[in-house]
């Protein structure tokens, strides 16, 4: 056969590169129940769809050339449910997937192609950070920072990052500028490793305390969801992308079939006593297509629920007050969570639905120390720039400034109110104390009289009478009205994307 020697060499080099860090390291991962980088790719992508770029790349340094198959980052193109994506999977078995001159060229290639060709970018993170020998001294300084737009994020296409183990350096940087981050429990994300951190601060520190999944799901909000296994993380990537278009110039995909829940169950969820709490998540599950609700940041900013879902197959984004946490009072973390979700929806042409039942913002020293006023205005600034359809459903309370943050007034295109809506400035019983200084235990009759007077003119009919609400509907009619409005607004669903370069963390 012609060129047999060269073809044999090609076969050998391919096998060596696909062998990653060697049999021993791969077996160690199997023993730990953790997928290797190529197994992750196989799990994520449609079978046989992966087109690898840079298989034959290796370290620029002679001493590590033979130890760096594919140079620790596996890159290329593939399909997820028939749609093309660009992908980079860090191979921790090769030099800890450390970032180098060569493998960052792969990263740049995938980012550039993703942006120019309108493909989602998937980043499977697990890395030790920068490759130290490549970064030392003036020569090392001269090799980094050559692309001043390396960390620019303008949201032409969706970015999804995963944390699949130790994730430092580039895995951290690209995660926090992605649209969504999913983690395997046990993964760690931080600026640098616990060892380096411990040496720098002369104090031993545990990986979990430095940047574990609980910290990032519960406290920082930098991780959207955490799962037990690699497989679950990768399945979440698929699910998330199913709601989004491939790029910002397209509408989200619409499913041709869907199932509808019994809408009368909303009446069973909502208590007649307005001060009693209820399960807002269950309400969303009923209104949306059955099985379509995909919540983000469920452990963070708990007074707000943010979820992707579908109504008659159309992707929508729900921002919902949660009465089960602080009675729905909105704290600074919930502000950050809401704004992050608004940016996601507006950037990728997803209509926003507010479900409103809030007593105002959570006030006190803690909130002020977390810059509550600035975060409230960040939200208003973002909302003022939204160009996708916005619908507000006032369920019960909508008090104070938060009335506007949750889509009140002209901050929504259409406002719907349930007969249970309450549009007071604050809870009447509290207002009696603030305005009149009357306490219930001291003068119960006068207190009740004043509370009743402050409660007048606050019902759904009053708002509708001023055309501040366009519809007063029964709870069980909510899905129908939203579906019809989505159809009305569908003809101009591609937004202007004023929020495409909004900071990812603030």
How is the secondary structure organized here?
Elements: H1 4-18, H2 23-31, H3 37-44, E1 51-53, E2 73-80, E3 83-90, H4 101-117, E4 121-128, H5 132-135, H6 137-141, E5 159-168, H7 170-176, E6 180-184, E7 188-190, H8 194-201, H9 207-211, H10 213-219, E8 225-227, H11 230-243, H12 265-269, H13 280-287, E9 294-296, E10 304-311, E11 314-321, H14 332-347, E12 352-358, H15 365-369, H16 372-384, E13 390-398, H17 402-405, E14 414-417, H18 428-436, H19 444-454, H20 460-465, E15 471-472, H21 478-489
Parallel strand pairs: 3-4, 4-5, 5-6, 5-7, 6-8, 11-12, 12-13, 13-14, 14-15
Antiparallel strand pairs: 1-2, 2-3, 9-10, 10-11
Uncertain runs with pLDDT below 50, 5 residues or more? Answer: none
In terms of DSSP E residues, the strand content is 15-25%
Q: Report the sheet with the most strands, covering strand number, pairing sense and barrel closure.
A: 8 strands, mixed
- Tally of helical runs: 21
The N- to C-terminal Cα distance equals 62 Å
Q: What structural class do you assign from the helix and strand content?
A: alpha/beta
Shape: elongated
Strand elements, count = 15
The overall pLDDT, averaged over residues, is 88
Share of residues in helices: 25-40%
| Integer-rounded radius of gyration | 26 Å
CATH topology of the largest domain: 2-enoyl-CoA Hydratase, Chain A, domain 1
The CATH class of the largest domain: Alpha Beta
CATH homology-level superfamily of the largest domain: 2-enoyl-CoA Hydratase, Chain A, domain 1
Number of domains: 2
Per CATH, the architecture of the largest domain is Alpha-Beta Complex
